[in-house]
From TrEMBL:
Gene Ontology molecular function: D-cysteine desulfhydrase activity
Name of the protein: D-cysteine desulfhydrase
Species name: Achlya hypogyna (Oomycete)
Cofactors (names): pyridoxal 5'-phosphate
One Pfam family it belongs to: PALP
Length: 378
């Protein structure tokens, strides 16, 4: 892998196998520590005949940590190239994307405005988890109610209204959609394909399937389309699309529905990346499975217990909103529906989000995490 200088803008050339995506970004800024490592991984409940590895995209950095770093490398390069002096984005109250955006922007000398959904927008959101980091780096927080957010059809409305206000004040804002999931940010996960293919070959892993959490669609679009295009140009690729109804890319969604994400990728992401109409659909390269449980960013006792058991058994910390839910349902799928998978060697991509665990601390039962004992003198 070529050496890159942290925080430096560099010209970007898309891989030849991705030529079907005719609108690649012109530049990127190195924000993450890539390639991220792959480890053997045996979470609780994994069937005995299944081998699993974990790709630690949570190792992409400390403050930025997670899959958002890959997207922001392209999004913030475009922001800087356009002369932006601030960025505006949107997310949930404990948004990993908003935290990563605020930190990355500050590293590049840009201000950030974060529009956060809350049950009570008039209440101070506090300093737990991602919110502490947002506020430490000086992000401006704008709170909106969940009902207003839904009324206006999601984050795009609030991002554009905020950008309009900032322009009227003489600022130069750059708007970033929820999760950084658009035709620019998705290139971060097109790029991961050569990285994991190189690791698979070098480490002789024998990967047959890849699985990950999906919350806004960009990572799913990038990994899925990237793997599909790579396989068309490389007969020895790890991920083979030999069965039309059983692609080896598994996206575990934590909000909305499979239909929503298939349509969003096909109508909002792939066309803006330059894919010609009718070339292929996300249904050709993705299996979408619902892992939302009782709701986005809401956890059941069983899900939290599973996250705790993974930590006790493997030392891996999963977040409660994305990777924790995804792995919980993935293992159940491997137990009950092995026919969904192309083979028996699964790569699970850890997309980060550990700071969100702090928000769930009050919900963790003492039986799951242990109870302190008083030191006894002899």
């Amino acid at each position: 892998m070529a050496h890159k200088t942290f925080l430096q803008r560099e010209p970007y050339t898309a891989p030849q196998w991705a030529a079907a995506l005719s609108h690649p970004p012109k530049e990127r800024i190195t924000l993450g520590n890539f390639p991220t490592p792959i480890f053997p991984f045996r979470p609780p409940g994994l069937p005995a005949d299944v081998k699993m590895f974990i790709k630690r995209d949570d190792y992409s950095g400390v403050e930025i940590s997670g899959n958002k770093a890959r997207k922001l490398e392209f999004l913030l390069a475009e922001a800087v190239a356009q002369g932006a002096d601030c960025v505006v984005t949107c997310g949930g109250i404990q948004s990993n994307h908003c935290r990563a955006t605020a930190v990355s922007a500050r590293m590049l000398g840009l201000d950030s405005v974060l529009i956060l959904r809350a049950d009570d927008p008039a209440e101070d959101p506090g300093l737990v988890g991602n919110l502490l980091i947002d506020r430490l780096v000086g992000a401006e927080l704008l709170m909106v109610s969940r009902s207003d957010y839904a009324k206006h059809g999601g984050g795009d409305y609030f991002i554009e209204k905020t950008c309009e206000r900032l322009r009227a004040q003489g600022r130069k804002p750059y708007g970033i959609p929820v999760g950084g999931s658009n035709g620019v940010g998705t290139w971060g996960y097109i790029e991961i394909i050569e990285e994991l293919e190189h690791q698979n070959q070098h480490m002789q892993l024998g990967i047959t399937d890849v699985a990950f959490a999906c919350g806004s669609g960009g990572s799913a679009a990038g990994i899925g389309a990237g793997a599909y295009l790579y396989a068309q140009h490389n007969a020895a690729s790890a991920l083979q699309f030999t069965s039309p109804d059983r692609p080896p890319v598994h996206s575990y969604i934590v909000c909305d529905s499979p239909t929503y994400f298939y349509d969003y990728i096909d109508t909002k992401i792939l066309p803006t990346m330059g894919l010609a109409a009718g070339t292929f659909s996300s249904r050709n390269f993705l299996q979408m499975t619902n892992a939302m449980g009782v709701g986005y960013a809401k956890s059941t006792a069983d899900e939290l217990e599973y996250i705790a058991s993974v930590a006790r058994q493997t030392g891996v910390l999963l977040d409660p909103v994305y990777s924790g839910k995804a792995l919980y349902v993935l293992v159940k799928d491997l137990q009950a529906h092995p026919e969904k998978f192309a083979g028996k060697t699964i790569l699970f991509v850890h997309t980060g989000g550990m700071f969100g665990l702090y928000d769930k601390a009050p919900e963790l039962h003492p039986a799951a995490i242990g109870t302190p004992k008083l030191f006894e003198r002899e």
